[in-house]
Write a structure and sequence with these properties.
Helix content: 10-25%
Radius of gyration: 24 Å
Number of strands: 34
Amino acid sequence: MRPQINRLPDNAPKGFAGTAIDRTKPLRFRLDGRIVSGFAGDTVLSAALAAGIDTVGQHLDSPIGLTSRAHPAISHASLANDPQFALPMARTPAQDGAEFVTFGVERSRGVARLFQPGRTLGLKLDSAHPLSRPWRTIPGAADAATDLLVIGGGVAGLSAALAGARAGLTVTLVEARGFLGGHSGLFGTQEGEDAPEESMARLSAEVEGAEAITVLTATQVFSIRPGLARAHRIETAPGTSRGRVIDIAAAHIVIATGALERLPIFAGNRLPGIAGCLDAYEMATRFGVWTGQRAIVATSSNPAYRLAMLASDAGIGIGRILDARPEPASRFIAFSRAYGIVQSPGAVVASVGIARAGGLLSIHTENRHEAALVTDRLLVCGGWQPDLTLWHIAGGTSVWNAGRGRIEAQGRLDSIALAGGAAGYFTRRGCIQSGADAVDQLLGRERRAVDDPIVDPLHETPDGPIAIAQPVSEGAPTYLDAGIGLLQRPAEAARKRRFAFWRPAPGGLTLLSEAPQALAVNEVAAGVDLKLIPADAAGIVAQERVASVPLSVEQETSSPDTWVPIEATEIPSFLIGRYGPEARLVRIVPGEARILEAGALIFPDSDARHPHYSIGVILRHDPAGAIGLVAASAATIDYPVTVREKGQIVRAQIAALDA
C-alpha cells in the first residue's frame, strides 16, 4: 500500500487541509493492481496524487505529468474495455475495496514494469489519441427536459441558475466536478467584496435550497446545440461508479464554463512535477494534496502570487517567482514581497529537466548567466483563455483579441448565452452579475450593464502575453497545452524526431490548422502566438477544429424517441453556413490511395493556404473516398481540388456521394 506522502496535515492553514475529504473515513482501492489509500471524498486522481503517483507514462521517450487536465480514462476491472463503463479519474469517487484499471491505453508489461519508478502509471502514450474519452462516441439517453440549462457551477453559473429560478423557470445546473463553487478563491478579493469562499458558499447554499433548481454534479457536458446538450454523468452506488451519457433538452442554455489556464511554452513543460496554478490550488483546497515541500512559480499573471502566499502560509517553501513581465505590479506582488519571496521580473523559463537526485526538477531560464534552479515542483501560469469549447461546438463564432492575447466570443446564438469567464469577464462581481444578465438576454428582458471593475493598470499590471521560450534541440518535448491532446510545438528540431507529428509545408512553414488531430482552444491561441495561425483566422480554426463530438442538427428535442444517434450525424452544427447556405455533401477522391483525416481543409488550388480561402472540409473517412462538405460552387463532378493535410498537399477530385 502506498502511503499518502503528498497529503497535507489536517491542520494545514488557508484551507489547504481539503474541504472535500473526510479524514475520519479512510479507504483503500486498487489501481492497475497497486493498492492506493485515501479518504472519503477523494477522487481516484486525488488519491493517486496524494500517494505520489504523478506520472501518466511516456510520450516521445519523455514522462508526462498526471494532472486534473491530463489523465487516462479508467474503469472497474470487471467492466474493462467497454466504452459504456469508462470513467475519468478526476471525476470518479474513490471507493473502498474497488479495483480500477486504466482504460484503452497500452501499459508496460513484464520485466519492464519492474524498473518503473513507483510514481508512474506506466502507460505508453505514443499511439493516436492515448488519453481519449471513449464515452464521447456513445449516443445519449433522454433525460428530463428543463426550461433553463446552466453549464458550470462557479459563481457565474450559480448566479444564472438563481436568476432563472426567480424568473419562474425550471432549471438544471450541471457541474463537471463533484462540488459547486468554482475557483474564485484563487483570484482573491477586491475592495468592497466579501471573501470568495463566502460568495461561493452563499450562492451554493441558495442554489441547493431552491426547489426549482436540479443540481447534477460529476456531470460534464461535451456536446451542445440550441435546444440540446449531451453530457457524461457519473452515478455512484455503494461499491461502484457508473458512467452514463445523457441528453438534456432545454429551451434556454447558459454556458458558464469559466476560463482555461494557459501553459507557458518551453522545453519540458509537461514533465511530472509541473502543474498549473489553478490545478495546484484546487488539489490543495479540495483534497489537501500538495507535491513536495518546495516550489518555484513561473507566471505572467497575478493570481500566481496569491497561490505562492497561500502555499507559504501552509509551510511550503517558495524559492522564487519568475515573472515573464518586465515590471509587474499588483497588490499580490507587493504582499508576496513582504513575505520575503524572491521575485525575478522579466524572467522566462527556457527549459526544464529532471535532476538526477530524487526526481527533482532542474529549471533553466533564458538568462544564461543564472545557475539552474532545483526544486520539487514548478507551478506555471500563462494567463487565461475563455473556455469557448462548447460555444464553438454550438455554432458560435469568435475572434482574436490582440490587446488581450486571447480568443473571445462574438455575435449571438439562438437560445444560448455565455456568462462569467467564458464570456470574457474578469472579476468576481462581473461574473456574478453576468449570470443574471445571460438569463435576461435569453428571455428578451431589459438588460442592465454588468459592473466588471478592473483595477487601473498603473496599480494592477494586466496579464502579459504567454511566455514563449526559444526552441531547443535537446531535452524534453515542448507542448502547446496541458490537456489531453499532447500536441507539440512545431519546430525544425521537432520534425526530425522519430515520432514527430509535423511535416513541413511548402516553404518550410507548418500551419497549425493542418495538425493531424483536433485542436483545443488553448492550442489555437498558442498557434496564433507562435504565428502558426493567422490572427484573423483564429476563430475559424477554433470553430472547425474543436476537440469534441458534435450533435446532429436534425435531432428533435420535442420527441426523444426521434433523436438521431451520433453515428448518423453528417454535418456538425458548427459547420452549418460555414461554406454558404447551399453547401453540399460530396465524396472527395484523392489522386493516390490514402486516408484523408477528418478536419483537413479543402482548397481550390495548391497556392491557397489561409483558412479563409478554404472551400470545404473533410468530415469523415469512407472506404470509397472521404466524405466532405464543400461550397455549392465546387460541388461539380470531377472538379479538381487540393486537400491540405498534415502539412502535405493532396490532389483530389469531387465525386457524387453515391458514386
